[in-house]
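Dear colleague,

Following up on Tuesday's group meeting, I ran the structure prediction for the two-component complex that the binding team flagged. I've pasted the input sequences exactly as they went in, so you can double-check that nothing got truncated or mislabelled along the way. The structure tokens for the whole assembly follow below. Feel free to forward this to whoever is handling the docking comparison.

Inputs:
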Amino acid sequence: MSGQNGTTTLQGYVGPSYRYLAQRNTTTSNLVVDVPEYAGVAEFPLLTISGTDTFSSHYMGGIAGLMATIPTSATTALTIGVEGGAYYTMASLSSDGVYTVSGGDLDVGGGVINPPPAPGAVAPISIEYDGVQYEAETIAFAARGTAAYTMAIAQHAQLTFSGSVDYLSAVAQTGVNASIVGYDGDDDGSVTYQSGGDNERISWGHMVNLSGSVSLTGQF
Amino acid sequence: MKSNRFLMAVPFLLGTTALVYGADPAQTIYPVDDAHGFFSLSGTVGGVVMDLPDGGGLFLGEGANDANDLLFGGTAGVSAAIGTGPVLGGLQGFIGLNLFGTYAYADVNKTSAFTGPGVVVMQGGTGPFSSLITIATSSGATSAFADITSTHTNPDGGGEAVVVEAVTNPGPGAEDAPYTSNAVVGNSFQWGGGQTRVDGAGGSATAYAALADENGGVFIAAGNLDGLNLTQSTAPKRFTSAAT
């Protein structure tokens, strides 16, 4: 709904909102442990990781906003608007990929390894994972700021140029279940990683969008 | 059951849209006739820059070139609004609907060159089935050690258990201890190793561990990450659609 305050028109609005967000990350990572061999005896094999993560997210909630439109001439106007929203969010993740190991030299010299590896180059090993599925849910908050310049191009038609900044507090991303202590300025520390039932594969990050657009509007 | 309930709720939510604003700012300079409603239709096209979470791993290493990668794309939308005439003591009322879709894409090739102390963790799939990896590194002026203990149960049976220790004590000296291990039963492997060095500049310790099976895998590097290079080619694609 809208009302007048001098020459400025104010518009307030509220209503339900639904968003669908699909993400497909095709990530091929070649991991090279390029550390000069300290003792000059052994060589780390090459580890290669390749994977594809696909997220689908549904946002169901509501928005509310306020806009102020200031006439700048008889046929033009400047509009500033802000909007906020809250959503119940459900995300699913499908993941597949392959890990491979090859090359290197396991002649470890004085290292203590139990069980001891066979010395020499490593025969190629390839492990595939496929069709892994996860789901998670959370509450997301959204905010938007918009500025627009509108000009009348006919009695019942307008052209609008607008720019906006969007923020969404919860966007699904990959996560791992690792506990890390130390490594705050030196190499004294520890890492514990555990997979299994309580491993939360989906974590949440925020999203920022910048957009510019042109709109043609007609009244009938 | 929960998913079904929410999918069934979507038409209800959209169908009860009320007092939504006129879909486009342009309407505010349209001379609204208080006594009569009107119908407004807008078409919108534009460009978009997206900054979304990178995903794909956890980088805690100092010096990691884990820059936020921007996605570029386009957006298109349709908005409609119907004026309802005066409401709430003379204010103009509208009922409206906005629909839009946005597609953004990036093709990124980058190399992260790590320096100094830190941790890198990357996981694929669910991570390996029932696994526990513990890493500890430490170094001083005259000594350094890097320990890895990794146990894994393969979902098909069998598994691997590896204990690795690289020690340089007392220095000067250096140690490399790379390892790989295959499950006797099932389809999985472990990879990793420890490195220690003590010289005139002091001590250094680094440990690596990776584990993969048919559920997924994980890679961890911890300690002094000097010389670790992680080369990635990533092609993220994002599609967003919305109705308000």
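Strands of chain A lie at 2-5, 8-33, 46-71, 76-103, 112-114, 122-154, 157-174, 178-182, 189-194, 202-219.

Cheers,
M.
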